[in-house]
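Write out a record, focusing on structure:
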Amino acid sequence: MNRFGYLSSGGDVYTYQIGESDIHAADNSDPASHSLPARNELMSVSGYYVCPAGQDNLEPNTADDMISGNRLLPELIEKQCKILYGRGPMLYVDSVTPEGEVMRKYVRNDKISAWLDSWLENGLPDSFETYINKAIRSYYYSEGIFTKWHLSRGLRAGLAGAVPVAGLEHISELRCRMASRKNMSGKTDFEDRDFDTVIVGNWVCGLSSEFKVYPRFDYAMPIQRNSAVSYSKNPTHGEEIYAYNVFFKGIKEWIRGSNMTPAYINNYLENALSARLHIIIPNAWVSAKESALRQMCEINAKRKLDNQPMMTIQVGKHEMEPGTEYSDEILGRYISLELKNLTEFLSGRGKNQGKVYATRSFINESGDEERWKIEEIPQKYKEFIEALLSYDKRADMVLLSAKGIDSSISNVSSEGIISKSGSDAYYNYMIYLTQQSIPEKIVCADVNYALKLNFPKDYAQGIRIGFYRPSVHKQEEISPSKRMSNQDEV
């Protein structure tokens, strides 16, 4: 028989306990059961030693689920993607001015442009622009990019011309894991060079027979193997194999809390099932009922021998037959009926005028009076909702800060209002643009190496692929006729 619990009636929930002593929930947790596998423990898959991505091998998937389920982060990342992409990828050459400043000059090259425009014709799944778009998103979600290399010799003759690399294919980091056939049992210290293979598949629920195995792209012998996979990453401090999104690891709990806030509020408002009354049942009452039920069972046992009808108990509108042999289950059923009778009385909307629910008080063995008690549980709706909203605002600021996007750029201020300061937006945007060198180099690393293999002379002249982001000028620096306020609406 449970000494405490809850029950619902008429849309309300009531908690109850037997006796007035404090109730302590048992802690059955086993600390050992919460232990996670060691971070440097490899997995064995189809004869390969696989380096797991995180302790559960699903850290990229966890990050993707949590980020995509957040109301702010997807749009913040989308804004980062758009800023980096600018007006799109273009060829450029860096030059040094007499004053020692590096200047970028955008150029045209028909041979390279023709190759970049031919990827779909060469049988690749995506165009060059789509590949770049996917690579940018992989960078901002995980700071690492997996690329599958397609060589011309692996395609139909003549499609890719004379260049060795037909094109590149982006592979989601959620599907890629580093691996090796080398025996690494007993080893605890690993380097990136230890893993010469990339296994691609569904690591959540896929079958090992469905995994695809590719050699890692070898920069020493780049055109020896078709369909190799490379991995370009932003090196993470303390992580040797995979890149991990530092911002995500630092604010994981803030993301989790922010994602749960709407559910907390909606559940709270939807379930007025939050308990509003707590019922205390006196021990002396329970003892008296136990004694009465025992006597009734004995009487029923004799009546049964005499083929007489069984005695029953009426509890409000409910009737109960205790049977012929007493057990705690009979007492539990009786208490449940009494509670049901009480809660039906309490939950009656506008139907209890003039009605009375009577209980008796009891004197326990110590001579103290015990009685039924119905205590109201304070429902601090306003405090609860305001606390969640305050947490939500703080979480927003933490997420913005972690992504390094000022509110004047993100259009989100501390109160959720769009920032209207043009000066703030201009200077913060210009500062943010100066921080795009590393993302651009990592996103374009593989396509620039392919450019080197296909067009070595042009590469030697300094031609690279990057992103064209036009300069932003203050309105006062622009002639009045060309200012935004004087432009005709389209």
User: Anything to note?
Assistant: The longest strand covers residues 89-96.
